[in-house]
Amino acid sequence: MPTVAGDTIRDNARVATVVALLAATLLALVAWIIILSDLDPRAMDDRGMISILPMSAYGAIAASSGAFVLTLRLRPIPGPLVLVQILAVIFMLYGAPGLIEEMPRFVTAWLHVGFSDAIDKTSQLHPFRDARFDWPGFFVLSAFVRSIAGASGTIDFLTWVPPVQVALYVGPLYLIYRSMSADPRLVWLAIWAFVLTNWVGQDYFSPQGFNLLLMVAIFGILLTAFRSPPGRLPAWLGAAGGWLRHHLRVPLPRDVVIDAAGAGTAAFSLRTRVGLASFVVLLFGMSVASHQLTPFAMVGGVIGLVLFRRLQMSGALPIMLVLTVSWLLFMATTFLSGHLAGLLEEVGRTDQLATAAVGDRLGGSAGHRFVIQGRLLFTLAVWLLALIGGLRRLASGRLDLSMAILAVAPFGLMLLQSYGGEILLRVFLFSLPFVAFFAAAALLPTQRPASWMLSLVMVVVSVGLAGGLILTRYGNEKADMVTAREYEALVQLAALSEPGDRIFGINHNVPTDYFEWDEHRYGSVPNEFALGTAADVIGEIEASTPEGNDAFIVLSRGQAAYAELFWNLTEAEWAERAGWLEAELPIVFRNEDTTILKWSATPQ
Amino acid sequence: MTAIRWNEAGLAAVMTLAVVVAFAVVVDNLPVREVVVIAYLGVGPGAAVVWLARIDDRALQLALVVPLSLTVDAMVATGLLYAGIWSPPLAFAVIAAFTALAVLLGVRERTAMVPLVGLTLLPPIVLLMGQV
Question: Domain extents for chain B?
Fold first, then answer.
């Protein structure tokens, strides 16, 4: 029988352990910040961030992972501590560019700020200039919040969008995983796995990043409050399992439970269920109005859940279909009128898929090809880990059918669209919240206590995945980063140019369109620059610039890095071509990272 | 203190924040403006509707507050833009009114009614005065 003194000793030991693990987590975080703040981003080569990260940084990740894994050994698991540990690793991995680089990264994020500012400035949408305005919810939201907060024109916040956004995913992910497992270790480990494997980098200031939040929130509600109760395998499937067990000696259990109830599938009152159902419609409506692809991914998942009778609220499906199709037909008319034929042509054409998604991405410099191969291997490794996890769960008598459906359903998108060659990335993203559960289950399939060896394996796997994440996510960082000198040139460009002037880059990797997007037209001359001559570049600029307007040509460090990574154009080749242009056109601004040339119809 | 009272205390805080935001929007260059606006728009509307649905599951409450808040914000602002009215202060007033209504509809205890009503009425009044 436990004594009062014994309880007190155990309580004190637990408090001391929790404090020690918290201290270890915070120390790892501080060490990470100190190490990364000291790095020189200009030293990066064509393999990106991994090329400048010292071994001590991996030590910080190992310490953080060790503290997390040790926390999972405590019974009960201290929720606040494990949450702090997850938020800390999110900051470490997703806030890393903010610690190393001078300015917010990634030109598309800057462009989205340009869209947002244009809405606030012109009080209207611009679907004729960019199809993304046909799904304007995210841009209008950001225009509204920035305006009312008095933050229009600011850009610094972009740096912290990814860590904040990924932190916001944690709550809905917790709901999803909790609905599938009563083992809190598996729930937290699955969130950890999501954070360590989300390499596709769509969580920047973008509609898709926001829509992933909506998606996980919707499935969090559906799986918590509207999932069918646990069931048994249908007789024919049970018989098939028996045949495999007896004749092929496959180690399948005799008794398999479908979607064994997790901790969160409690019964709710009618009022709460009505409220939650209306939240699903509200959140999905927002998704339909703010992103062109995510609603289709969600509809695919819900179709799967309905087909396999894993959803009680089957009425969600027709509502989602009506909302999706209605928006496309009545609100996205500008896009649809210009692209319908092309969209229909792509349906079912999987032959284009491999070329667009993989083939086009295997070019570039040697370091960049290494990164691409790393991304393919990392993706396959995550999927393999998930497959092992699914099989281990099955071997223990649990078939997580709802999660499997939602993990597989996004692959159906590949039959519809190549999405400009990005569809594989998007499929990975949409399936990751569910794949991560199985990846974690590979290590913790049952509630059996973890051995010390298993804990060690979890730390090693965590460090390996974090290293893989840094390689794959930040592999283009030399091109994705923006320097203070490049920003300074943009400020000068805004002052030099008049409304209506054309702004040209050599490629799109320059955030020129952040400033006064509504006042200018933008273009690039990649083929003329890389394969042609100065005359070809100037000819294209002349042909594209309206009469009475001038044009500015921006040559920047970021574009040169992009050309190196994706076109295999060396620094010397870039400098030679830039020299040709500088000999023909006057320089109106120059600093260490950027040269701005001016073209006028009347030579000056 | 029961869970319900904690909820009401939280909502009173949300509505107080709404009042501060209204003042911050009206009084230009208030240093706390960015922080309070983002805090209110990121939490307020979602907290009110979650409370209205009487969700007693704390994890469900916390997980849904931000996505629902941003959804309400975006729907109001987008709706006004499509209606040809781009006015962030008006959009904020509509969101504050919607939040206030959801809070009032969800009140379960009479004692909480008086301070909450007071707090819900203040933001639109302040904004209207600012516009005048």
Answer: 3-131
B103 neighbors B116 (Cβ within 8 angstroms): yes
Task: Record the pTM.
Answer: 0.91
Give the number of beta-carbon pairs within 8 Å between A and B.
131
Which one is predicted more confidently, A6 or A511? A511
pLDDT in tens, A256-297: 889 887 766 667 888 899 999 999 999 999 999 999 999 999
Strands of the A231-232 sheet, one edge to the other: A231-232, A257-258, A398-399
- State which residue of chain B sits closest to A215, comparing Cα positions: B67
CA distances from A457 to A69, A183, A444, A448, A451 (A): 10, 19, 11, 16, 10
Q: Residue A147: list chain B partners with CB under 8 A.
A: 88
Contact A123 B81 (CB under 8 A): yes
Listed by number, the residues of chain A in 264-283 with a beta carbon closer than 8 Å to a beta carbon of chain B are 264, 266, 268-269, 271-272, 274-276, 278-279, 282-283
Contact B81 A282 (CB under 8 A): no
CA dist A353 and A341 (Å) reads: 18
- ipTM, two decimals: 0.91
Q: What is the pLDDT of residues B20-47, one digit of tens each?
A: 777 666 666 666 777 778 888 998 899 8
Distance from CA of B3 to the nearest CA of A (A): 16
The DSSP annotation for A369-414 comes to HHHHHHHHHHHHHHHHHHHHHHHHHHHTTEE-HHHHHHHHGGGGHH
